[in-house]
Amino acid sequence: MRKWGLVISVCYALILLVLILPMAVAIVGTRLSPSYLWQGITEACHEWRVWLSFGIFLSGQALLLFLSVDTSFKHIKPRAHILVSCTVAALLMATLTAAGIWSLGFGVSGEKFGDTFFPTEGIVWSFCLGLWLVWGILFYFYFRDSSALVTRLVSWLLKGSVLELLIAVPCHIIVRRRHECSAPIVTSFGIATGLAIMLLSFGPSVLFLYKKRLDSYPPRPSA
Question: Does residue 221 lie within any of the structural domains?
């Protein structure tokens, strides 16, 4: 199981670096020449926020795959494991929520949305931390007695990523037609985030299906 988890995590990291990043750079820019695309990718690689996003996605993928959570034995009370899983899922869901709200705001109001509601970087981080806290509390109290915690959390992430893409893609089309400067960056971040978390959700899902199939086989008789 752990070997398959490593394979899925490595494949996920390669998809983020080889596909998601160039796609995000391509949908922001107005030209699609190889030199322009390479320049944009190089500039993005020097941006710490890009690596922060990659770190969130990759750590979330790894924790959801390798963290064992069992709530069936009540006398053990694995509160720490449950809290870690809910914290990871809440961080990913907060990222989706923030990207969806920003995409919708820039799509409807244009660049003045950012100047009005998020004029400083401190407000942006406070907003994201607030969403993280809200989702963490919601997930903990909603799933604390669930026997299939990670599976249900992954299901929520998959549904959330689909909903966020349904918001971000039309908003990106709208802001591109307005020829705004910073708005396409925000909506492209929304698209890349939605795709990344959607792919992240498929990783644990594939491994859990594989485990479920193995568990269905009868035990091998001892010699």
Answer: no
Looking at the domain assignment, is residue 67 inside a domain? yes
DSSP assignment of 140-152 equals HHHHTT-TTHHHH
The CB density around residue 207, as the number of other CB atoms within 10 Å, is 20
Convert the pLDDT of each residue in 29-86 to its tens digit.
Answer: 666 667 777 888 888 888 888 888 888 888 888 877 776 544 444 444 544 567 888 8
Structural domain including 178 reads: 2-216
Selection from 137, 114, 138 nearest residue 127 by Cα: 114
Model pLDDT for residues 174-194, shown as the tens digit of each residue: 988 887 777 888 999 999 999
- Torsion on CA atoms 176, 108, 115, 92, rounded to nearest 10: -90
What pLDDT does 178 receive? 84
For the entire predicted model, the pTM comes to: 0.77
Count of structural domains, the chain:
1
Residue 222 placed within a domain:
no
- Cα angle value 72/74/80 (rounded, 5°): 90
Structural tokens at position 207: 């491994």
